[in-house]
Design a protein that fits this description.
heterodimer, A: 329 residues, alpha/beta, Rossmann fold, six-stranded mixed β-sheet, 29% helix, B: mainly alpha, 22 helices, globular
Chain lengths: 329, 555
């Protein structure tokens, strides 16, 4: 029997801070209450010179999840994906993909993984058809019919050289070759970065189809948080190499409140609200993005002599901007 | 030199500063090479032993070519665009508010001036004291060099994405080679044409570069070419069925390696062989001056070319994309499910196929030359070499052919481990090590010729030294293989093929060496040749290559 990593879960995604509470076990069989883990990153740190690209990062992704990896530029999203691909070696901590170390067993891991690179690092000298044939040779599970469908859907000319393709077309051929062998796990690093809305829609639809029809595990990083909200059921937010948010998309959104606080007397400077990630406004009304429950917000407002006059669930975009703006959070 | 200084705050200043800023180490290194050569020439003129003259020639010419080629490259103002797979004018400058005339003239005039000045220094300090060469010849050589430099610039800037530009480049290079070497070639009737041709080339180069760059700035080369557009219009873009599939991942990787690098050595050596054939043809006509034609010289050139080029081309063998300047493994290759040894084996097999093809082409060129220039003379001499006639001679050449293939392959893969690491500093250290090692070896050889005691000492210690080096090589290789197996960087099958190949090739070299030693009536030399053969053939390099790739792939 294969030596798979099992992980006891009572949530789909395990917060990093709760890691010691879970028992990491190897071997055995799938039981009720156990869900197979596709990705297990535990305490991974990576420094480039003095800069910490990843700092004690722990992320566990069960099979069938769609994980959105979000964060500012330089937060460590691509570095984390490179660790999962084995392109980077963890300086401390462990990385397992389908219970295999991607550095020690690249063939075992990469055979089950599809990857669309942020850099669109494709061989410009090859033709589209040649690149497909080249990629096909590495994957026995390559589905020619599916590849043909995607080729038609993306309107790509197999005789065209890759260097003459537009940025959007290069993203499409990258996605095609990442999907055509139906990998168990798909890494998409900024799949729609720099693309126009039409190409973005095409790519997003292809991803959604993979998720909806095949139930595969997908990890994708993006700056476009409306995409993440639309596709992902889990979200991990990185900030300066640390995981600052980790949970289901709904949990993350509901864990924050966007509220308007009204003051009887306009404060002379921006009020300091305990638990707020961002405070903006003027005069007697200030909008805050608060991390906590409604009761905690009421308490925090009362402490500074304000009352909550309006509140709603913020978007992921608002949460990212607010948390990124608060240095060192 | 600061960019902020007033003199550099002009477009011309910025363009010149860029040359300096990116290649500032080349200039002092070139100065050192020139100074070293000039010192050697002084030593030769003031009391060097008679038998040290060869050594002075060797080192000086090495310094000249070794330092002049990088200088030409750095002054060329040609940049690699790896994404678009082309060489051309630095793209960022095309959008600056600077006239095309200035963009063309600044690098051409600056580069041309430096090239001519440096060439003049070399000729005065090194070449003229060594070789009695007329001033007119030096002037012609300098003009040829200038014209060659300008035409390489003009072609690279004007035709960045033209398919098959390499053919135009090679033709232009061959033209300049012929113009430079005309007095040394058996083509007296053509000599009177060299100056008119040279002047025409010089007059045409600046307008060509200007028009070409103007068209590039207007985006005439953007998008698919008109030929590509024609073909794509002739068929439905989606009517495509996959051609024959690759049988294995190894086959696909071999195809990639062949397409990127494999054709280079056979292409260049074969092309030059084809260049020699017309010269041979002309030499035998009334345009030629030599009778009988210099068969020995032509055959030596044909044989030496692949051996020389294999080292130069092999330097890029460790790269997956020769145009890539980062040296990192391209992502589209790094994420493929293939072992590190699989990638390395694809490169080694590609190098072997390239070597075989190169020598087949060279053999074909040599046979053509022989057919044109009087094969019967050579074949009639064959009887004196072997009593069994020309057929026996031809059969006897088969092991020589195999030996040349092995040597060429060895040259190609010699630096594969260093380049596969993807670290520039390791490549630099490797190149320095090679330069020091081979220069040391040459120096030792030259001093051994001069000094009899040193020669005796060397001959005494050489067998022991060879044995120790071979033992060290085997131990190092075993450690590297063990480490590679432990890290899954290499498979047991790959270890078997590598060790088996090394052993068989070593036995072949030893056997062939034995035959040659026996034929020379020096059987006592056989053991040295055998040891040297096993030592020279790569084993440790191949053992560490998968580990080097793993280090690059998993940073």
């Amino acid at each position: 029997m294969e030596n798979r990593l099992k992980f006891e879960l009572n949530k789909d995604l395990v917060p990093a801070r709760d890691l010691p509470e879970y028992r990491l076990r190897r071997g055995g069989h799938l039981n009720a209450g156990f869900k197979e883990v596709a990705i297990a990153v535990s305490g991974v740190s990576r420094h480039f010179g003095a800069k910490a690209a990843l700092d004690d990062v722990s992320v566990f992704v069960p099979r069938g999840s769609v994980l959105g990896l979000v964060g500012e530029n330089g937060a460590g999203k691509t570095t984390l994906i490179k660790h999962l691909l084995g392109s980077l070696k963890a300086q401390s901590g462990t990385v397992r993909v389908f219970d295999r170390d991607p550095v020690l067993d690249p063939v075992g891991v990469l055979g089950r993984v599809g990857y669309l690179s942020e850099r669109r690092d494709l061989p410009g000298w090859m033709r589209v058809g040649e690149f497909m044939r080249y990629t096909q040779a590495f994957y026995p599970a390559w589905d020619e019919q599916y590849a043909g469908q995607l080729l038609e859907q993306f309107q790509l000319d197999p005789a065209q050289k890759i260097k003459t393709l537009s940025k959007g077309e290069q993203a499409k051929i990258g996605l095609l070759t990442a999907l055509a062998y139906r990998p168990d796990l798909l890494f998409l690093d900024e799949p729609s970065s720099g693309l126009d809305p039409v190409v973005r829609r095409d790519i997003l639809e292809a991803i959604i189809r993979v998720v909806a029809e095949e139930g595969r595990t997908v990890l994708f990083s993006s700056h476009l948080l409306d995409e993440v909200e639309r596709v992902a059921n889990q979200v991990v937010m990185l900030q300066r190499g640390r995981v600052v948010l980790n949970g289901s998309t709904e949990e993350v959104r509901r864990g924050h409140i966007s509220a308007v606080l009204a003051f009887a007397e306009p404060p002379s400077k921006a009020p300091v609200v305990a638990g707020a990630y961002a405070v903006a406004g003027y005069g007697s009304e200030w909008r805050v993005l608060f991390g906590g429950s409604h009761l905690e917000l009421e308490t925090a407002a009362a402490l500074i002599g304000a009352r909550v006059v309006e509140e709603r669930t913020p978007t992921l975009d608002e949460i990212l901007v607010a948390r990124a703006g608060r240095k060192g959070s | 030199m600061e960019v902020g200084r007033l003199a550099w705050r002009t477009p011309t200043g910025a363009m010149l500063w860029e040359i300096w800023g990116r290649h500032k180490w080349i200039f002092p290194c070139h100065g050192l090479a020139l100074a070293a050569s000039a010192c050697l020439v002084c030593w030769k003129e003031h009391g060097a032993p008679e038998n040290a003259v060869g050594f002075v020639y060797l080192i000086s010419s090495g310094c000249f070519f070794g330092s002049f080629i990088p200088l030409l490259a750095c002054l060329g103002y040609i940049e690699v665009d790896a994404g678009r797979v082309q060489l051309g004018f630095p793209g960022r400058l095309l959008l600056k508010p600077v006239s095309t005339t200035r963009l063309v003239l600044v690098p051409m005039l600056f580069g041309g001036t430096i090239i001519v000045a440096v060439f003049a220094l070399w000729t005065q300090l090194v070449v003229r004291p060594l070789i009695a060469i007329p001033a007119s010849n030096l002037l012609r050589l300098g003009t040829v060099l200038l014209s060659f430099f300008w035409w390489m610039q003009a072609l690279a800037w004007s035709l960045p994405s033209l398919k098959g530009r390499v053919v135009i480049d090679l033709l232009m290079a061959a033209t300049h080679f012929l113009l430079g070497a005309l007095p040394m070639l058996p083509m007296n009737a053509l000599s009177s044409w060299q100056w008119p041709i040279l002047i025409a080339l010089l007059l045409a180069v600046v307008p060509t570069a200007w028009v070409g760059l103007k068209l590039v700035r207007q985006g005439r080369w953007e998008g698919p070419s008109s030929i590509a557009r024609f073909w794509s219009h002739r068929r439905s873009p989606l009517a495509w069925s996959p051609r024959r599939r690759f049988h294995s991942a190894f086959g696909a990787q071999f195809w990639l390696e062949w397409r990127r690098q494999g054709w280079r050595l056979p292409g260049i050596s074969g092309g030059l062989a084809l260049l020699v054939v017309p010269i041979a043809l002309i030499a035998t006509t009334k345009l030629g001056a030599l009778n009988p034609p210099p068969l020995g010289v032509i055959l030596s050139i044909l044989v030496l070319m692949p051996l020389l080029f294999s080292g130069v081309i092999g330097h890029a063998l460790g790269k997956f994309d020769p145009l890539d300047t980062t040296r990192e493994l391209p992502v589209y290759i790094a994420v493929r499910p293939m072992t590190d040894s699989g990638f390395v084996m694809a490169k080694l097999v590609m190098a072997l196929v390239a070597s075989v093809l190169t020598w087949l082409l060279t053999l074909a060129g040599a046979c053509l030359c022989l057919a044109i220039m009087g094969a019967e003379t050579l074949f009639s001499k064959a009887a004196s070499v072997t009593p069994y006639g020309p057929v026996a001679l031809a059969i006897g050449c088969v092991p020589l052919f195999l030996l040349l293939v092995i040597l060429t392959w060895k040259n190609m893969v010699a630096g594969i481990g260093a380049v596969l690491t993807g670290r520039q500093w390791i490549v630099t250290v490797f190149l320095c090590k090679s330069a020091v090692f081979y220069t040391g070896l040459l120096l030792l050889g030259e001093f051994a010729i001069i000094d009899q005691d040193l020669r005796k000492a060397l001959l005494y210690w050489l067998p022991g030294l060879l044995i120790v080096l071979l033992a060290a090589k085997i131990v190092f290789s075993i450690c590297a293989f063990a480490w590679g197996l432990r890290r899954n960087a290499i498979t047991a099958c790959a270890v078997g093929w590598t060790v088996g190949g090394w052993f068989v090739c070593g036995l072949f070299v030893a056997g062939y060496g034995g035959l040659v030693c026996h034929a020379m009536n020096k059987p006592e030399l056989w053991i040295w040749v055998a040891l040297a053969g096993f030592l020279v053939l790569p084993l440790a390099e191949l053992a560490i290559a998968p580990l080097a790739l793993a280090w690059n792939r998993h940073r």
